[in-house]
Structure formats: C-alpha cells, structure tokens
Design goal:
Blueprint (H helix, E strand, L loop, with lengths): L12 H13 L4 H17 L7 E3 L2 H11 L7 E5 L1 E2 L2 H8 L3 E5 L10 H7 L4 E7 L8 H10 L4 E4 L7 E2 L2 E2 L6 E5 L12 E4 L3 H10 L8 H17 L2 H12 L8 H6 L21 H11 L2 H18 L15 E2 L5 E4 L3 H10 L5 E2 L3 E2 L14 H9 E4 L7 H12 L3
Amino acid sequence: MNTIPRIKLTITFQELFTFIWNMLFVQKGPAEQSQIITSFETTFSSRYELPPGIATCKARMGLYHLLKNMNLPLGGEVLISALHVADFINVIHLAGFKPVVIDIEKNSYCMDFHDLEKKITSKSVLFLITHLAGYPHDMQKVLNISNKYHLPFIEDCSQAISSTFHGKPLGTFGSASIFSLSLLKPICTINGGIILSSNTALLNKIRTSISSQKKIDKIPYITEAIKNIILKLAVSPLLFTFIVFPLLRPLIYKDDFFAKFQKHNKLVIKRERLPQHFFEPFTWQQALLGLSQLKTLKEREIRRYNNATRLYSKINNKLIHKPLPHAPQSNHSFWLFPIKTANPANLRNYLYKHGIDCSKMLLSCIPEEIAFTEYSFLANHAKKTKDQTLFIPAYADLKDKDIIHIIDTINRYK
C-alpha cells in the first residue's frame, strides 16, 4: 500500500550533521560569530524590505522583548488569539501585562474582529495578530481597528512566512512582527525566532536590552538536531511504510506518539518566571543553518503552494469543510493544509486505512488549558475549530501520484 506521511522536513541531513559538527568542534571568534548572525538577520529581513532584524532564542521571546521595549503601560491588556502556543500567555504575564483571549471567526483560522472590538477596553495596550497555517487576516480591517482605537499591533508570522495581503508581505503591517524558526518551519534553525520592524529605534533599544549572556548549553541544541534527524528517518519511504505507519494505525484513537514527539510544548503550566535558557543568545551555528535554508526557500515555498492550491481546488466533499483560503486580494502560503469535519476521528481512521497519515491541531485552545483558568477566558469557536480540524499532507515534496491519491480518497469519503 502506498503510504503518505503527514510531514516532510525541509532541512537536509547535510545541514543537520554540519550543525552538530559546528556545535561540537568548530570555534569562531566573537567578531566572526557576530558577522554570521548579522548576515542571517539581514538576509532574512531583506525579504520584507526591512532593516536587519533580531534573532532570538524563541519566537515567544521576540514578543517578550517587544513588550518590554515598546513603552507600553505596565499592567495593560494584551489581546491574543485563542488558538496559540499556550506559553505566550506566560510571556505576556511575566512581561508585566494581562492576557486577554480573542475568539476566532466561525469556519476560519483568523481572529474574530467583532470579538476583538468587544474586548478592547481603556486598559488595552496592544493586540497580537497570528496568521495560522498561512491564512492571512484581512489586514485592512486590522489597520482600521488599530487606527480606530489607537492600539498598536504585532504580527505573529511563524506560520505565514510567504503570505501576502494586497501584494505586501505579512509581517510588515504592524509595529513589529515575530517569526518562529523551530521544527517544521520553512526556515528551521533548530530553535529560534526573529523580530522584524521598520522602527530602527525600537530594534536598537531591544538589542541594547537583551542579555549579554554569551555561553549556551550546547546539549539541548544537539539533542534537538538529533530529533530532526530521527524525524527525517521516520518519514523516509521505507521506514515509514514498513515500521512507522503500522505503529501509528492502532494508536490513532489513543495516543499519537508521533505528534507528541514533534511537539515542543508538551506540558502547559503557569510559570512563575521564564527559564534562564529562554534568554540564551541566538548562535552563529543557527545563523549558518538559516542562511543555508534561505537559499532554497523560494523554490520550496512555490512547490508547496502549487501542491496545496491543487488540493484545494480538487477536494470536493460535502462532509469536508475547507476554510476560505485567504482574505480578499491576499496570497495564502499554505504552511499547513487544514480541513474540518464533524467527525474527525472517523475521517482520520478512514484516511489511515488508505495510507494517508494526518494530524490533529497541536496548538492549544487557551481557554481549555487548566493552567490558565483564573483568567476565565472564553472562545467558543476556537474549541470547535480545534476539535474538528485535521491537517493533511500538502508539503513541497509531495509526488503527483500522492496528490491524486489524497484528492480521490477524500472525495470518496462517506
């Protein structure tokens, strides 16, 4: 039976082994390290015609540094989408602000603007627009709300590195933007994130404020690189077909260990403080990895977009809902390809029987997280969307026969 894994890592074995080698054995002086990191920050930012950004240990720390340096009134409310990495709530709280959760639109992955306006108060200081799975928000509406309430916003483009609105890249509309550079992202530097902004004064302030800590613990980086190698091996044709896929099938209703393995944030807690390693600097080894992937990014993004648009145009089943691909006059980069159905467990079992691996949504529905019950968050659409969503394969390396098989299989689903 032809089997199709849910993911394919774009990072190459050569890049991963070179990264580990550099971590273990290669020494560079401070000036050369700084030059490599600056080169990555400059090259990444040039895609958006912005000044050199700031690479960070994690994308969430990009938000943390922005909140700390934007001269926002402490104790104010920061509004965030209900479907998100849960640790962003901790980041907002520990930066000195109060998180407020906004629901998403029905049958969409974008923030519900009506709920946003309803929850904006005199205490609101900023809102975070997160473009999930590559879906662009209607940025004209976002700008209108920002101007109406004199409220700045930041874009989280971790899942929308190539999405645009009216021909303008996402990540260039707000006061700043953050991108994740972690596992499965189009640019993966093992861990990491990057801050972009047109405001050079803000960027300079953040650079000055970031800890001068130079030493890092190399073991977690090497461990994460090995995890990437294991995942690449696991989804290779022979291993996936004869070992991994047969192991996955009996566990689809119980415990998806594959999803747990790929997920970074396995436990949601309310933190008393941010871990010290969150403040570790971005390394030159990560920067070299990012520079290598930037060379092939455009080609990979085009191939994934073409595969996803083909799936979108050909899948036609009344039991399957495809959220609108994008806001008017925008371009969707399809970082992931979500579909919704009333009975995702049944659909998932059906797809497995036909050799198609798929995944549930790994992001948290923040109101459902016990760690944050004290905030009394409400977001009814978000929970339903998370529960009904499956992500099907739509990556750059999908073969033509795989695309045809996915389309035909889903269209036959009853």
